[in-house]
Amino acid sequence: MSGTGAKSKGDDKSAGREGAAGSAPLTSVLFVCTMNSIRSPMAERILKALHGRRLFCDSAGTDAGEVDGFAVAVMAEKGLDMANHNVKTLEDLDDIYFDLIVTLSPQAHHRILDMTAGQAVDIEYWPTLDPSTVAGSRDQVLAAYREVRDALEKRIRQRFGDSS
After folding, report:
1. pTM for the whole thing?
2. % of the chain beyond a pLDDT of 90
3. CA 100 – CA 94 distance, rounded (Å)
């Protein structure tokens, strides 16, 4: 990433290059959470399902995690396969040149701000519950995962539009 300054858009759902007057269209998006096992891969898979032909999308975590079985299960309910997701950290990415980076956890947001200091990249923070912290019965835990999945899908549709 090159340029003169990272721009953090906070929780502004309309922020970023897409829709900004006179700017190039958005072509690449990176979703970042803490472990790249639930939130960011869900968001990646949803965006790819909606806009995979027009946008390059990837996801990563600040730390290494493992594929989460509950996340795989609730994504499969929507016909989205996450079973073969390869967990990645930011250091594992071949290329970190993205038009937009969406952070989904406070840890990820602070890390991206540090990594992109002095670089021209749009950053949006979408605070997203970590459903793995929810205690209760299996049904209650699955409900929390579904809530996160559905909230991410709604936010992605609002930000990027319906499928291309």
Report:
1. 0.86
2. 74
3. 16
Hey, what long-range contacts does 138-146 have (CB within 8 A, 24 or more apart)? 141/70, 142/70, 142/73, 142/74, 145/38, 145/70, 145/71, 145/73, 145/74, 146/74, 146/77
**DSSP symbols for 41-109:** HHHHHHHHHHHTTT-EEEEEESS-----HHHHHHHHTTT---TT----BGGG-S----SEEEE-SHHHH
Q: Crossing angle, helix 138-160 and helix 69-76, to 10 degrees? A: 60
Given the structure tokens 């898979």, which residue do they identify?
A: 45
Sorted by where each starts, the structural domains of the chain and their CATH numbers stand as 7-17+24-160 (3.40.50.2300)
Which tokens is 123 given?
């950053």
Give yes or no for a contact between 67 and 37, defined as CB atoms under 8 angstroms apart: yes
pLDDT at 17 over 50: no
- The closest of 155, 164, 150 to 13, measured between CA atoms, is 155
Give the orientation angle of helix 69-76 with respect to helix 39-51, to 10 degrees.
30
